[in-house]
Amino acid sequence: AVAIESLSKGKMFYRFLLYIPVISDWLVVAILFKYIFQDTSGALVNSILLNLHIIKEPVMWLQNEWTANIVIWSLCIWKGIGWVMIMYTTALQDLPKDIYEAAEVDGATKKQSFWKITIPLLQSRTYFIITSLIIGAFNVLLQVMLITNGGPMGRTDVLLNYMYNKAFSSFDFGYAAALSVIMGIILIVISVFQKKITNNAKIEF
Hints:
Structural class: mainly alpha
CATH topology: MetI-like fold
Strand content: under 5%
Mean pLDDT: 88
Oligomer: single chain
CATH class: Mainly Alpha
Low-confidence stretches: none
Number of domains: 1
Distance between the termini: 21 Å
Shape: flat
CATH architecture: Orthogonal Bundle
């Protein structure tokens, strides 16, 4: 966000480019990721890595717990990076310019201004983003169901998918309901904590 904001031209283009994943449908991109990370040599990712001689044989991305998790979290990061960029962009635009002008007069470099001014002023926004991402991690479901469905051997399972399978595959509705209540309590605690630290981190201009 800082790099894009510092550009003299093309800001909107790069923001739009990074925001495309955010407005893309989860169903579509999850199926797309499952397709490009197929285990065959003709799949996009394996084909590129084979042609670059990075790997000697196709990687079974979705059959190994580590690589399957990499695929899922790569999708989540790719989908979320545009939202984080927008959050920081709006915060950067609200920062008072006179602080930077005063720092420049005092001989501060751009690097010093970034670490000594920008980072501290964005502290409350950073807390908000981190907390939102943690809460969002609890809501991961569709991408897991469509890409691995919790496999291999449950190694990519997440709480919502586990609750869903308990309720509608094992028909253990009581256990699933108890898990949902616990998850709700955890999210409330996280939200209250986020509100408290955000209020403490606010800086008046």
